Amino acid sequence: MPQVKLISRFFEIENSHRLRVYEENGGYSAARKVVTENWEPDKIINTVKASNLRGLGGAGFPAGVKWGFVPKDHEGPKYLVVNADESEPGTFKDRHVMINAPHLLLEGVIIAALSIAAKDVYIYIRGEYWEAYHVLERAIKEAEKAGYLGKNIFGSGHSIKVHIHRGAGAYICGEETALLSSLEGFKGWPKLKPPFPAVKGLFSMPTIINNVETLSYVPIVIEKGPEYFAGLGVERSGGARLFGVSGHVNRPGVYELPLGTPMRELIHEHAGGIREGRSLKAVIPGGTSCPVLTAEEAEKVNLDFDSLAEIDSMLGSAGVIVMDETTDMVKVLCRICKFYSFESCGQCTPCREGTGWMARIMERIVSGNGHYQDLDDLLDIASMIGGNTICPLGDAAALPVTSFIKKFRDEFEAKASAGSITAASSRLSAEEL
Ligand SMILES: Cc1cc2nc3c(=O)[nH]c(=O)nc-3n(C[C@H](O)[C@H](O)[C@H](O)COP(=O)(O)O)c2cc1C
Ligand code: SF4
To answer: What is the distance in A from the centroid of ligand 2 to the CA of 310?
Structure first.
C-alpha cells in the first residue's frame, strides 16, 4: 500500500510551519468552514465519530466518543489539553508534526475546542522539545494576529486562547491524570479513574485530553469528509496514522500509512528492509510498553488496533522498534526494565518495588550472575504488578517482561544459566578449599 500524505505532506513542503505557506496549501479552511457555517458542537462530534478516528497517543479510544462525554449542561469553564509530552521510548512522530505542521495542530485544536465549548487550551509539551516549543509559540502568535486564535476567532464571537506549558522531563507526566496534576502545579502523580477527565479534569472542570497527532487529523476529517477517512482504514480503526520506525532498518523515519497495512510492508518496503541484509528477529510495535513480537508474528500481522490485540500486543503510539538477528534480547529487556523503574512515580507498592526488583534482577542476569530461578521470579513479579496499580505504567513495565521471556526464553535461560554455573562452581571450590 502506498503512503498516504495527509499530515506528512507538510513534512515535504518548505516552510510549512509558517502561516502563509500553510494557508497556500489549504490551511485553516476546515476551521473556517466549521466557524462560518456555524456548526453545532454535536455536528462536529458526530462527524469525528463517523470518521472512526481513534486516539493516537497510546490507548486508542475513539476521539469523537470521548468528546461526547463532556457534560453539555456544565456551567463554568471546560478545557482542551493537548498531550505533546511524547516520552514513550521509540516514539517521535508528534515532534515531526509540531515542527513541520504546527498550524495543522492548531486548526485541529480550534475545531476540538469548539466541539466542547472550551475557551482555554493548554499544550503540555515535553521539556526537551525546545525547537517544537518555539515553532509552536510562533505559530500561535501568527494565528492570533490573523484572528484565528484569541478573541472573536474568524469574526464569529468565539474566543480560544492557547497556552503552552513545558514539562520537566518526567515520563509519567504523559499519563493524562498526571499531566493534569503537573499542569495545576502539583507533583505529576496519576489519579484513579473514575472520575474521568471529561467529567472532572483540569482544575476539577470537564477536560478533554488528546494527543498531538489525533488533533492534527481533525481538520483532515472535516475537509475530506468522515467517509473518506474511515474508508482508508479498516473496520473500527479509521484512517491512517504516522508510524515512527527506528532500529535496524535501512530507512528509519516517520511513514504515514492506512491502518491495516501489513507490518512487513512497513518494514521491508517503506523503511527499506533490515540493514546489511540481516534477518529480522523481533519488533516492538508501538513503544516499549507494548508486548514484543517475534519475527514470524511481525511478518504476518497488520497494523491496526484489533489485529495487534488479537496476538496479545498493542499498536500503542505506533513507535515501531525493529531488531535484527544481532540483537541481545536480554540486554534490551534490561534497558526497558531500568527505564520503567526510574520513571515509576512511586505511589503504588507493586509498581514502585516491583519495577526496581525486575530491573535489579535483569542487571544481574546481564552481568552473568543470574540464576534459573530468576526467570520465574521475573514472571511472578510482573504478574503481581499488572492490573494492580493506579495507572497503566505498571502494566507497561510488566508486559515487556512477560512477552520477552515467553517468546525468547532460550536466550534468557542461556544467560541466566551462565550465572547458575558460575555460582555452583564457586560454591564447589569454596567447599573444596
Ligand atoms: C505512563 C503513560 C505515559 C503516557 N505518555 C503519553 C504521551 O507521552 N503522549 C500521549 O499522547 N499520550 C500518552 N499517554 C496516554 C494518555 O494517558 C492519554 O491516553 C492520551 O493523551 C489521550 O489522547 P488520545 O485519546 O488522543 O490518544 C500515556 C499513558 C501512560 C499510562
Ligand atoms: S503504577 Fe507506577 S507510575 Fe502509575 S501511579 Fe502507580 S507507582 Fe505511579
So the answer is: 27
